[in-house]
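Hi V.,

You were right to ask for the full record rather than a summary. Here it is.
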Amino acid sequence: MKQSKFSGFILLGIGLFFFAIRMNFDLIQPYLTWPTLIIIIGLALLLQAGSGKDSASIFSGVFLTGLGIHFHAVSKIASWPQPLQMITLLTGIAFLIQYKKAKEGLIPGLLLTILSLWFIFFNNNTPSVQNIFARAENLWPIVLMIVGAYFIFFRKK
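Predicted structure:
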């Protein structure tokens, strides 16, 4: 049953996408690109998660929907954050929303969201902050790998 709803959401969304292309509406034509297809897939995953209390699709749905929005916004808004900052922010937000439903992912969600927001808003403020981030920028991927390995190999439920 769950798979048929997901398939239905995907087919409906892609059908609407191609219908809009055929109708040639000038207002939405700039948005009928591949990021919109990513948004459609993300929304289908979110609808599946919401309709069947399937919390496994929440993370993927939030991430893909946000990624599609990011790719649209990066070409339209000059001050839009860099892809690395947005991908880590989207991952953090997806973990936090998953935590709300499934009670999993709070720590990685908080860490990634705070780290991303810090990089987006405070990375370029002062020379001293830039020096701290220049040093930390080389270390934070290692810290993320260590925390990830801890969750995989050492933390028991």
